[in-house]
Amino acid sequence: MGPRGRKRMLTAGKYLLYFVLLVLLYVLQATPGFLAVRGIKPFLVVPAVIAIAIYEGEFIGALYGALGGMLCDMGASTFYGFYTITLFLYCTGVGLVLIYLMKNNVQSAVICCLGYVGIMGLIEYIFYYLLYAYPGSWQVLLFFLLPRALFTGLMMPLFYLGERALFQRFEELIGEI
Amino acid sequence: MKDFFKSTRFKILTAVFIMLCAFMLRATVSGGITPLTSQLLSLITTPVLKVTSSISEGVDGAFRHFFQAGAIERQNAEYEEKIRILTQQVADLENYRRENEQLREYLEIKEEHNDFTFTSASVIGRDSAERFYSFTIDAGSETGIEKFDPVITSNGLVGLVSEVGKNYSKVLTILDVAVEVGAYDIRTRDIGATTGDIALAREGQLRLAMLPKECEVSQGDLIYTTGYGGIYPKDLAIGEVTAIHTDSSGMSMYAVIRPLADITNVKDVLVITAFEGQGEQVFD
């Protein structure tokens, strides 16, 4: 196999690894009791796809965003496609914003992650609770959606650093060819 | 940025976006049947989830013994084989015990309601995006489960199926604000409807609303399903009244109910796939 072929193999291997990691993260996210603090569990797939979008750019980021969204939709109580569409669009945006507007660092990653879970939490609150005028619906925002967003934001540096290590390792391997 | 909007990548992403929207619309139109993408992903994730959920719930069971065996192994190699066999036996016994319990529950309910057809299932997922303790079970359309099938344990009603995949289903619990069940007090025969309440759900309780002001419901009374609507069978136990209050309008009463089924920690459930009167009087 020539150098170009080996480069392609490595790139394909990296994308396959992302896929496997996302499935594993979804399994952990859905495992009863895993990382649950007083009934609140963080998203694990969301920070992972945002980290991928940061390093891989808007195109690959968008595709993995859609995949991550499909996984999230499997377990979510919202309508099917809620996370698929929003993560697809958001990861495209993150990829572009990181190229043109923001610096590629941990702070930017945490801001991007909090931005997504915050906006989604707010949309979920408005369309699934507030519009139905359930009594005490603010409690969902305060005791469920907000802690979940913060918990997910706290996890983001881990995913960012993990993705950075993975991305750089693959870049080195490809560069050596 | 302008370059991006003129690029081929942008065109491909737009095509993908349109395709995703089409999937979403199809899912909305088809109701409880999840789209192809979800079905395909579930083929990978459901078997893995079964393993991880049993690991998670088996802290008091076989897995702890497994870890203990590891520690003993390091201390004393000669016990390794013995402990491995014992561990396997404990795991087998635990499985038999659970299976036995499930069959016993099945039999008890079957004797009480001989018109029921069941499918047993285990809880394999409680996702961070799920609300009001809703969960995913390891049985789907392959085993005859359909949207709106009631989900129970031997203790009482748990909820209903809200979405069906080939090998998994999502269950909304009776603690959810979107789930309403026609119910009555078995002692006084007062009729109302149970519904989730955001504040009460945090304590694992729900509310029996629309009770007349002159109702005689009191603490300790048992609440059962009326069967009205054709979604839930008649006379399924829901819960026990823990308090009675006048509602904010002052026109009616509501009771606070503690479900008899342990909804927040349920691990095995039965899905009623058919019962007498199912689907009668159902209206959207």
What percentage of the residues of chain A does DSSP assign to strands (E)? under 5%
Query: What's the order of the H and E elements of chain B?
Result: HHHHHEEEEEEEHEEEEE
Residue windows where pLDDT falls under 50 for at least 5 positions of chain A: none
Overall strand count of chain A: 0
What's the CATH architecture of chain A? Orthogonal Bundle
**Computed CA radius of gyration of chain B, to the nearest angstrom:** 23 Å
CATH topology-level fold name of chain A: Arp2/3 complex 21 kDa subunit ARPC3
The strands making up the biggest β-sheet of chain B line up spatially as 1-2-5-4-3-12
Question: How far apart are the termini of chain B?
Answer: 48 Å
Taken from the alpha-carbon principal axes, the silhouette of chain B is globular
CATH level-four homologous superfamily name of the domain at 117-284 in chain B? Rod shape-determining protein MreC, domain 2
Q: Mind describing the biggest β-sheet of chain A?
A: none
Number of helices of chain B: 6
Main β sheet profile of chain B = 6 strands, antiparallel, barrel
Task: Write up this protein.
The complex is a heterodimer of chains A (177) and B (284). With 177 residues, chain A is an all-alpha fold. Helices cover 80% and strands 0% of the residues of chain A. Chain A has one domain: Arp2/3 complex 21 kDa subunit ARPC3 (Orthogonal Bundle), CATH 1.10.1760. In chain A, helix 1 (3-30) runs antiparallel to helix 2. Chain A is elongated. Chain A starts with a helix and ends with a helix. In chain A, 44% of the residues are buried. Chain B has a domain at 117-284: Rod shape-determining protein MreC, domain 2 (Thrombin, subunit H, Beta Barrel). Chain B has helices at residues 2-6, 8-30, 36-57, 62-75, 80-112, 198-201, and strands spanning 117-125, 135-137, 150-152, 157-164, 169-173, 180-185, 191-195, 206-212, 222-225, 237-246, 252-259, 268-274. In chain B, a hairpin with a 5-residue loop joins strand 6 and strand 7 (191-195). The mean pLDDT of chain B is 81. Chains A and B meet through helix 1, helix 3, helix 4 and helix 6 of A and helix 2, helix 3 and strand 1 of B.
